[in-house]
Predict the structure of Heat shock protein 15.
Amino acid sequence: MTQTQHLSHPHPATAPQPGVRIDVWLWAARFFKTRSLAKHAIETGKVEVGGQRAKASRAVHVGDAMTVARGEERFELVVRGLSDTRGPAPVAQALYEESVESKERRAAERATRAAERAGYKAPETKPDKRARRLIRALGDIDAL
């Protein structure tokens, strides 16, 4: 085998692994509704790959450990598949595997939030003129 033939066919172990941009993958895995929301979350530090902040252009590979903070929820997951197109939810859920600890923690936090608002009862009707004035007055107290 000549040297030129050797260079034209790199060894499979040294060939670069295929990857997908992290913002596209987060959108395809249905963590965010739009790619721009995914990009904004990455830029504001809500997404970490391997314990480090990621950039939107970073490529995600199968096996990468990732942490995604969305609202009050925090997902710890491992990438199991790659996709650059958004599909149905069952297909999107097959792209990652969430850790058991992460699922349990999110369930506990969700239960805590539900318990905190259990005492709240929404009003049955809209506030009348007097009630609206009282609400506005209370709002002015906060501004002081």
